[in-house]
Amino acid sequence: MSKEVVLDCLGEACPIPLVKAEKALVKMAVGDVLIVQIDHSCAMKNVPEWARNQGHEVELEEVDDGEWECIIEKMK
Amino acid sequence: MWFKDALPYVAGAVLLSVFQIVTLASTGNPWGVSGVFANWGAWLFELFGGSVDKWFYFSSPGAQATLNAGFLNYPGTWRNLGIIAGALFAAMMASGFKIKKIKSWKQVAAAALGGLLMGYGARIAAGCNIGALYSGIASLSLSGWVFAAFMFVGAVIGSKLLVKYFM
Amino acid sequence: MTEGITRTSSRASARGGSRRKKKNQIPIALVIFVIIAGIGVWLGFKGENLLLYWVLGLAFGFILQRSRFCFTASMRDPYLTKSTSVTRAVLIAFAITSIGFTAIKYGYFANGLTIPGQSYIATISIATAVGALMFGVGMVIAGGCASGTLMRIGEGFWMQVISLFFFIVGSLWGAHDFGWWKRTFILGGTKVFLPDHLGWLGGLMTNLLIIAVLYVIAHKWEKKNSNQLSH
Questions:
Q1: Could you give the ipTM of this predicted complex?
Q2: Which helix or strand (DSSP H or E) is residue A57 part of?
């Protein structure tokens, strides 16, 4: 059963959301889903980009004004 | 909606270049940001009764004229305030504006230390990421590349410090 | 186990529940636009290019925010996240602007006029190195460089307001000490305007060559550190 981890990065300056996402993902198993909550405009671009580069499935959703959720499914 | 999506980085690069070139053509100088802050600092200092008139940095006739004309008459003031306003408008237009409050004392410390380093460093290196790096390199000045090399080293050091102390 | 941040939830319901009602900010944007235009008109009457500088600033701020362009990221990401997309975009900006600037400067030169913007050919000395290093450290810690700080204030970050205040203080401090740096290091330094040594075309080509080499290195660095099949 795949686990879902929510990472609250609201209010964090870049690159902190990305660094935290990297660290969290390392601890997760393949198939698990990491949801990164972001309100930094740079992070909403660089977190999905990095995750795609690493070969994971990525979705970005805008959940409120200036707030996004980056949903990463660990693929490897 | 098309205007909600972020522009690709390369599009930003092209557009910034266009306006940099327009800046040189129309103002006689490339874009600069941090020099303005030194003057803002001087006016702030004067507000509290200080004076920078004996400082070498402000000793040239041009510098004195700028200081005497004041904050509101300084073109640099308006270009820098324009950046804030332009970004604000862009964010609102895409309904992406959100107030991000301070989350921890670490952020305050990071902002303070980082700000001081940038301010001081930019003065002695004759500019910041715009004036010394971007405008310097685009002006075919070797100083731009020297700045780039050391700025990169600084960024690596800064990254280590960030992860270790400010995360 | 990561206790603090693990929360198992059924995604469908969490997603539905966490979606707050988004406010449309366009009405506010229109109000801001009117205010911006109003300031513009006032500056137009004040004179002395103030309106021009205001418009240029607006353009830069708008573009930086829309494209999430970040010089800090261009230098920090290759090390921290192994990504070079911003780095390469910055290099492209350098290249295009170099060409534009050189064309303008050559135009003035060829017509026997004073070349504009030459005050930005800075003296190279230890002060350049130390200052650049300090700036590099500072911008990563503060989460934004000079332009990035202003841009992020516009986006609503209180952290960058604090950063700006200290940037101003640091600038004043640097201006205060500048005399010492000038006497001790800068006076002994040298200015190098590439066309003076390599000719106009040679200077431009050298600049572009350096940019091209860095671009290739940046591209390879990211490819090497990614897990995607090359595309």
A1: 0.96
A2: strand A57-64
